[in-house]
Input
Amino acid sequence: MKIALNGASGFVGTALQETFKNCVILDRNDNDEMLVHKLKDVDVVINLAGAPIIKRWSDPYKKTLVRSRIDTTRQLVDAVNQSDVKHFISTSAIGIYPNDTSCDESCEQRDDNFLTHLAEAWESEALKCNKKTTILRFGIVLGKEGGALAQMLPPFRLGLGGTIADGSMMTSWIHIKDLLSIYSFVIENKLEGTYNATAPHPVSNYTFTKTLGRLLHRPTLLPIPHFALRLMYAEAASVLIDSKEVYPKALQKAGFTFTYEEINTALQEILT
Output
């Protein structure tokens, strides 16, 4: 099976290259003709393109977030539709779900904010594909080589880690190894539709913080107030302070088994 990756240089894309050897790498600078040529004899296209979301959102950067997701996906879908590709797997985010609400894939309630509208538009472009299409809504991806945890570890190792405000916000996460297994499972079982790529047991920020501190043998006594994150990231602080309680009901119903269901075992594996 031949697999093409769009957005291959990021944390997840790099890990997928190790999982699926000899991938065809698609570049954001590829024009339409180059994309169609690269997709010759490709069976599966995985779309991971998107500028980093954890960055202060100026108006120009918001446009970058939109272009890197919506425009890139539109161009890629056009190329896939002209090719013999059999399966298109695109990325989305659990930011599409409302705050403070327990959600699985059946949840249709939406908040009125930039992140929600971005995810909806991203998915809408992917669903214009006329091949078998799967959308994976990522939770916070945890792993040794990158992602949110890599940014958190330095202050935590210095004993400067702490909860966000009172720690009550819910965090929906997934171990990178389980995410890679989900891709293999989706491809092998030819699954289509929308799936939450999150572990079965989301945790409060308090539980996440205290578990990480305990495994690092460091105190976690310095809470980060919401206003400090808003000063640093402006509107983008919502990515860090929103409460998302999301469950992978569709994946479990399809028969997928998670290796890392609990945050303690997930963080323990990553930190050892």
User: Anything to note?
Assistant: The longest strand covers residues 87-93. Residues 3-142+173-200+245-258 form a domain with the Rossmann fold fold (CATH 3.40.50.720). The mean pLDDT is 95. DSSP finds eleven helices and twelve strands in the chain.
